[in-house]
Amino acid sequence: MQIKKLSTIVGGQDGAIYKNYLFRFSSKGGCTVYDLTKIEGNMTPIAEFKLDKIDLIVPHSNSVTFGNEFFAEGDEFPLLYSNVYNNYAKTEDKRVGICCVYRLVREGNTFSTQLVQLIKIGFTDDRNLWRSSGAVEDKRPYGNFVVDTQNSLLYAFVMRDGEGQTRYFSFDLPTLSDGEIGDSGVREVTLTSDMIKEYFDTPYHNYVQGAVCRDGKIYSVEGFGEKVHPALRIIDTKEKQQTRFFDFFEAGCTDEAELIDFYQGRCIYGNHIGEIFELEF
Q: C-alpha 220: how far from its chain's center?
C-alpha cells in the first residue's frame, strides 16, 4: 500500500464524503465542511455547524456515513448516520449500541441538520451475541455502524475482549417509516436478535475508529498511538473475513486513526490531528 499526503484540515473524529463535500465531525456534535475540489494543500473550511438536538443526545462520531435514502423529494443529501459510541460511558444510561440518523440541508454555504431517527441494538446485554461470554469485561461494548448503500444493509460491529475478536452483524437498513416515536421526539428503531441477517467474527480490532463500506468491503481504521498502532482492516462481507491488515506505523504515520471514506474512487484517510492522505492499494 502507498500513502500520499494530500492536505490538512481540522482535527477530529470520522468524516463523511458526499459529492465534493467533506464533513469532518467532532466528538461533541460539531462539524466542519470542506470543498474537496481543493483537496491538494491546506484546505480552508467553507462552513461549520452543530448537529441537531445535541442537548438530548451527542454522537461521538467515530463512525459517520451517508446512506441511500433521502428524507424528502428534492433533498440534496441522503440521510447521515453517526454513532454515539462511548460519549455516555460515565453515565447511568451508557447508550450502548445507538446510531443517530440526520437529515442534512444546505442553503448556500449554510448547513443544518435535523435528527430524524435513532437506531438501537436491542441485544447489547446478550453475552452469546453482543458482549463477551466469559469473565473478561468488554472495554468498548458500544459498537460501530456502517451502511452498505449498494445493498441497503446496516452493519454493526463490536469488540469482544473476552473472545479476542470483533463481531459483525448485518441488518436490513431501516427506512424512515420504521420505528415508533420515542422520548427523543423522533422514530426509534430497535434491532432485535431475530432481525439479524447474519453475523461473523474477525480478528480483534483495537479501539475501533472510522469506517466505510464500498463494493461489499468494510474499511475500518483503529488504534491511537505507539502502544496501539493506527491501522486499517479490510473486511469482506461476502467472504465474512478479514482480507487485509495494514499498520500505518510502517509508513511513518503514527497519529491516531480516525477518518476513512472514498472520493471519486480514491480512498481518503485522515488522522485525529487533521492530516489527510490518499491510500493506494
A: 9
What are the residues facing 247 on neighbouring strands?
A: 231
Q: Which CATH class is domain 2-280?
A: mainly beta
Structural element, H or E, at residue 154: strand 153-160
* Domain coordinates in residue numbering, the chain: 2-280
Instruction: Confirm whether pTM is higher than 0.90.
Output: yes
Long-range Cβ contact pairs of 42-50 (< 8 A, separation 24 or more)? 42/7, 42/8, 43/7, 43/8, 43/9, 43/276, 45/9, 45/10, 46/109, 47/109, 47/110, 47/111, 49/110, 49/111, 49/112, 49/113
The alpha carbon of residue 86 and the mean position of all alpha carbons in its chain are separated, in whole angstroms, by: 13
Phi and psi, residue 277, nearest 5°: -125, 160
Which residue has cell 441537531?
52
Could you report the per-residue pLDDT of 119-161, keeping only the tens digit for each? 999 999 999 999 998 888 899 999 999 999 999 999 999 999 9
